[in-house]
Amino acid sequence: MYLPPNVLYTFLISLGSGVLGAMLGLEGGTIMVPLLIFLLQVPIHIASGARARR
């Protein structure tokens, strides 16, 4: 199955930020949102939606 590169990068960023956030006692979104904005050029209003709680 083929996945676009951005999907794979987004998955790796979310996995890494979740692990790092758990080790540091932070939310994963605190790490993930800036990485999405600066590394993948995701617009801020979309990247901040990744931090929304359910």
Entry keywords:
54 residues, mainly alpha, 3 helices
**How much helicity do the residues have?**
55-70%
Count of distinct strands: 0
Estimated structural class: mainly alpha
Number of domains: 1
Distance between the termini: 30 Å
Radius of gyration: 11 Å
Anisotropy-based shape = globular
Biggest pleated-sheet summary: none
Strand content: under 5%
Order of helices and strands: HHH
| Overall pLDDT | 82
Short note summarizing the structure:
With 54 residues, the chain is mostly helical. It is 69% helix and 0% strand.
Task: Describe the protein in words.
The protein is mostly helical and 54 residues long. It is built from three helices and no strands. Helix 1 (5-24) runs antiparallel to helix 2 (28-40).
